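sry for the spam today, last one i promise. struct tokens for design, 148 residues
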């Protein structure tokens, strides 16, 4: 049986607007100062927790990398709720955690599974852009790997 990296099923055209938006988010999410302030405003009331002064632990990774599973597994195994930053799916959050010395778990799913799952969940993302975003996500964490 021959396995291909990506099946030919993902052939829908992606609008130039959505493609530009995805690329812009890829770049902006690498910069803690601006992106974290934006995320605090945008994600208030969502299932996303942005790093703050009372954060005890950060759990995050590229989208579709089992963040929800990791967050629930950790919280259910604790005697008390842990103040977590999670689900931002942005290098900025992980970089800021490394700078602050906050314990951080970076979730890494192999690229084929993560990207295929992303393309199914977000059909407006182009394959090329998903590959680019995955690569940039983890490349930007390399200088901080000893703190993560």
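last one done:
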């Amino acid at each position: 049986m021959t396995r291909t990296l990506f099946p030919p099923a993902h052939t829908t055209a992606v609008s130039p607007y959505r493609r530009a938006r995805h690329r812009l988010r890829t770049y902006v999410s690498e910069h803690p100062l601006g992106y974290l302030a934006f995320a605090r405003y945008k994600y208030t009331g969502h299932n996303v927790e942005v790093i703050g002064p009372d954060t005890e632990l950060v759990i995050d990774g590229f989208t579709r990398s089992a963040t929800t599973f990791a967050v629930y597994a950790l919280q259910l195994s604790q005697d008390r709720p842990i103040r977590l930053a999670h689900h931002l799916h942005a290098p900025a959050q992980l970089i800021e955690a490394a700078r602050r010395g906050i314990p951080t778990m970076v979730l890494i799913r192999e690229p084929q599974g993560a990207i295929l799952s992303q393309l199914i969940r977000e059909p407006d993302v182009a394959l090329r852009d998903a590959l680019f975003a995955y690569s940039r996500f983890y490349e930007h964490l390399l200088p901080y790997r000893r703190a993560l």
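The chain has a mean pLDDT of 90. ok im logging off now
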